[in-house]
Amino acid sequence: MEFIDLRTQYVAMKSRLDGCIAQVLEHGAYIMGPEVGILEAQLAEYSGAQNVVTCANGTDALVLTLRSLGIGSGDAVITTPFTFFATGEAIALVGARPVFADIDLATFNIDPERLPQAVTSANALGLTPRAVMTVDLFGLPANYDAIEVLCEQLGLKLIEDAAQAFGGRIRERRAGSFGDAATTSFFPAKPLGCYGDGGAIFTQDANTAAHLRSLRVHGKGTDKYDNVRIGTNSRLDTIQAAILLEKLKIFPQELEARQLVAQRYSNDLPAELTVPTVPEGYQSSWAQYSVLARDEAHREGITTFLKDRGVPTMIYYAKPLHLQQAFSSLGYSAGDFLNSEDVSRRIFSLPMSPYLTRDDQDLVIECIHQAER
Ligand SMILES: *Cc1c(COP(=O)(O)O)cnc(C)c1O
Asked: How many CB atoms lie within 10 A of CB 337?
């Protein structure tokens, strides 16, 4: 059993994928070919964002977004310490400083109640608090009902890191449509993945979108040899756009299939594990299905038992960002974000894919029950 099965999807779609790749090779517009614009329009339609700008990967999507909002040196961006490293890294890459706010224990997402305290911390450091960067962890949107109001009150921009959450939603609003801008990643293992790196930025604001379109092609003005600002090279390959267009067609069914796997796990796993909380009206895209063990030893016992029976698990994330060596200069220490630290010792993720067979689901569930006996 694979932890994330990409192969079954490939086999099912092979002839369509071969066809769309061949088409790009035929027309020859390898960079910014027609598929890129078509994909952006379809992503906008799906997400409910007015504008979508694709780029080279999900990390660049965050960096470009921060740059388009003019965030840099002397600024603070409030974010969660319980995320993939790229979230905090992007903030540091533009010269701003990440200021962490702890997570909610039930959803693993940033706790809105901690935002005012984080603003106070940023001010105390002599920094200008500019934005909150939320993460929709494992596919579950953060608590935007509360966060949007708070950002408004605190005068902060809101950036949604939806790298794991394409397809997630709160009621009728989809991931990508929250905040001043949102980002996603098309890394192969994300819910909507291509066959290489890719990313996108979503924004309701046409000026931000225009700025982003310039930044991703060396700060171009009216044409690419007219450079009006320092940009970078961060485009989505036409071939990857063509692949994503095909995958987007089956994405709604895949999301439904992930939903069924998650429901099955949540119904049938033993009570010794804490299964994911999905608040009323929310839907996760189930990038990961992650559970909490009682403690580190309990987790170790179960994951080793599963491994011996051919059931892979992963730990996202064993080390919160504030304890990463790369961020040692920020001056945080163990004990600063107790919920993140607690979760990092107890969490693990089970195999998840729209193509996880009923037999494999049975095996995962049965093995965990055995491990508990
Ligand atoms: C994957 C991921 C990113 C980065 O995306 P890449 O395409 O790998 O650069 C950023 N933030 C989060 C939360 C992610 O999971």
From this structure: 23
Is the previous residue joined to 317 through a cis bond, with omega within 30 degrees of 0? Answer: yes
187 Cβ closer than 6 Å to some ligand 1 atom: yes
d(CA 215, CA 43): 20
Give me ligand 1 centre to Cα 84, in Å: 7
Specify the residue with its C-alpha closest to ligand 1, atom 2.
163
Dihedral sign for Cα atoms in the order 293, 299, 304, 305 = negative
Ligand 1 within 6 A of 86 CB? yes
In which residue are the tokens 């078509």 written? 38
Are 276 and 138 a contacting pair, CB within 8 Å? yes
What does the angle CA 244 – CA 246 – CA 247 come to, to the nearest 5 degrees?
60
Atom of ligand 1 nearest to the CA of 87: 11
Mean confidence (pLDDT) of the chain: 98
Collect contacts of 313-318 with beta carbons under 8 A, ≥24 apart: 313/3, 313/348, 313/349, 313/350, 313/351, 314/3, 314/288, 314/348, 314/349, 315/347, 315/348, 315/349, 316/84, 316/138, 316/288, 316/290, 316/347, 316/349, 317/82, 317/83, 317/84, 317/344, 317/347, 318/344
- What confidence category does residue 223 fall into, taking pLDDT thresholds of 50, 70 and 90? confident
pLDDT at 241: 98
Tokens describing residue 245? 């267009």
DSSP secondary structure of 269-292: S-TTSBPPP--TTEE---S-EEEE
220: which DSSP letter? Answer: B
Query: Residues for the chain: how many in total?
Result: 373
Local confidence band at 224 (pLDDT 50, 70, 90 cut-offs): confident
Euclidean distance between the first and the last CA atom of the chain, given in angstroms as a whole number: 23
How many Å apart are CA 354 and CA 33, to the nearest integer? 30
**Contact yes or no for 344/318 (Cβ under 8 A):** yes
Quickly state the pLDDT bin for 327 (edges 50, 70, 90): very high
